[in-house]
Amino acid sequence: MSGAADTGTAGGARAAAVPAPVTTTARLALREFVAADAPFVRALLNDPDWIRYIGDKNVRSDDEARGYLERGPIAMYARTGFGLYHVALRATGEAIGMCGLIKRDTLPDVDVGFAFLPAHRGQGYALESAAAVIAHGAQAHGLTRVVAIASPDNARSLRLHSQLTPVADAMTAISGITKIRAGQHARASRGAQAPSSASHGAMRTTTM
Of 13, 55, 117, 124, which is least packed with CB atoms within 10 Å of its CB? Predict the structure, then answer.
């Protein structure tokens, strides 16, 4: 991944090193998570839609959010070279969500996942960021297959997955996005437990 850059604080002190973007779009910058992102992650994981569609991770403090990051996205970067990324607006630097590629121990395929705070939904950020991470996965990691897993009752995620396919085709050598409903993937994986998708496309993970 790209190197890190320090950012200053209003008081002149230096903040923790923040990684350079892994990939960018016209509006968004995606980078690896760091422990200092814990307050944002705590807020995201306690959003009612996250709890409803992904599940309650019992992350109530910044310390618990740091543990989530260290066991989840940060560990996956070390293991696979990719994972879920911090998504921010390029214009302001404001953190708005997470998006990335996930390789689960229990499933054979890499899948795309994304989740955004309520104020930043319905503006195309999920589609924009997901297409970018899929392209990055093909170009930087040689991925030739990515799946999108959604629960049958999550109409918004299913609709977004359909929108994602032609966008990804235009950006990467991956031939389409294989859309799999939770349950179908379990059967294809010979009984492995398949995750449900979250509102607006964020995927349930086994460790995050």
Answer: 13
